[in-house]
Amino acid sequence: MSAYNDIIYAVSADIATVTLNRPQRGNAISPRMRDELIQAFEQAVADPVVRAVVLTGAGRYFCTGMDLAQTGSRPDAAVDPVDAALRMFDAVRHCPKPVIARVNGPAVGGGVGLVFCADIRLAPRSTGVYFRLAEVERGLVPAVISRYIVPDLGPMRARQLMLTAERVTVADAADHWPGFLTSAVADEKALDAAVAEYTHMLCGNAPQAMADVKRLVAVQGGGLPSGETAVTTDALAAVRSVFSRMLQSKEAAYGIGEFMAKRRPDWSAFVTRGLPKSKL
After folding, report:
1. Could you tell me the mean pLDDT of each successive run of 10 residues in the chain, 280 residues long?
2. CATH (residue range 206-271)
């Protein structure tokens, strides 16, 4: 376990768990939590033992968004608030290792943004979990997180979510909002079981191949990291780059060999080498 203040970072069985840890404030994102989230995801990426990351919250809430009291009370002319927020959300969204959102409680505002930054999103139907973008009620706009929500929900549903400030239950999100959740489970016990099931699946896959998949989907889906555009990263060129590297990949050669031999691959040798940054 590493020393943080506003989050808890722990690694067990090749999985890093990042827990938002301001339960007395509904796990609202303080400037310190923002910086610690970036640091924690950088730590997970740099650790060759870590295969996937689980993001969750302490207490009753997953995350209630930005802590407006703290955000407004610590003006820093050297910090661009948009850039700082983008770096935090991008650290989650573009982590080269798979990220699972274990939504243990309500997600509001930026908390919804964090959910949409995850690759796998799991939530229980029976524990009062809901999702809400309440910014317009306060004269605010969910500007930064729109970058992560609109591509997955689509323009019409995104407008509905952002304009009405309505609560979306887990059942509604799963049954009537395509692109919102991976799975809605019965309760918290089932939530932990689902997290364990997905981490088991992810740990059985080739690490660099998964990183390339994430990068390729980001390019094809228009969800590139801040600072990159379709002009600087051509979608077809990205396909060619990944395919060419795959043909020369030791991972692919090993994986195909194990498939032909009817054995389940053991990717531990590839994991301990670390995960280079995907270049498309």
Report:
1. 87 96 96 96 96 97 90 62 92 96 97 97 92 92 92 94 96 95 96 97 93 88 61 60 72 79 81 51
2. 1.10.12
Phi, psi (degrees; rounded to nearest 5) at 67: -80, 100
Q: Could you give the CA distance from residue 94 to residue 105 in angstroms, rounded to a whole number?
A: 24
**What residue type is 148 in one-letter code?**
Y
Which of 118, 147, 150, 112 has the alpha carbon at shortest distance from 225? 147
* Helix axis angle, 143-153 to 110-117, nearest 10°: 40
Q: What is the largest CA-CA distance in the chain?
A: 62
Point out which residues pair with 132 in neighbouring strands: 108
The three-class DSSP label of residue 143 is: helix
First to last CA, the chain: 34
User: Where does the chain show beta strands of DSSP type E?
Assistant: 7-12, 15-20, 52-57, 99-102, 107-108, 120-124, 130-132, 168-169, 183-185
Burial class of residue 121, CB neighbours in 10 A (0-12, 13-18, 19+):
buried
Instruction: Give the whole-angstrom CA distance, residue 195 versus residue 120.
Output: 9
Stated pTM of the model: 0.86
Span(s) in the chain for CATH 1.10.12: 206-271
C-alpha to C-alpha distance for 34 and 71, rounded to whole angstroms: 11
**β-pairing verdict for 107-108 and 130-132:** parallel
**In CATH, what is the architecture of 7-200?**
Alpha-Beta Complex (3.90)
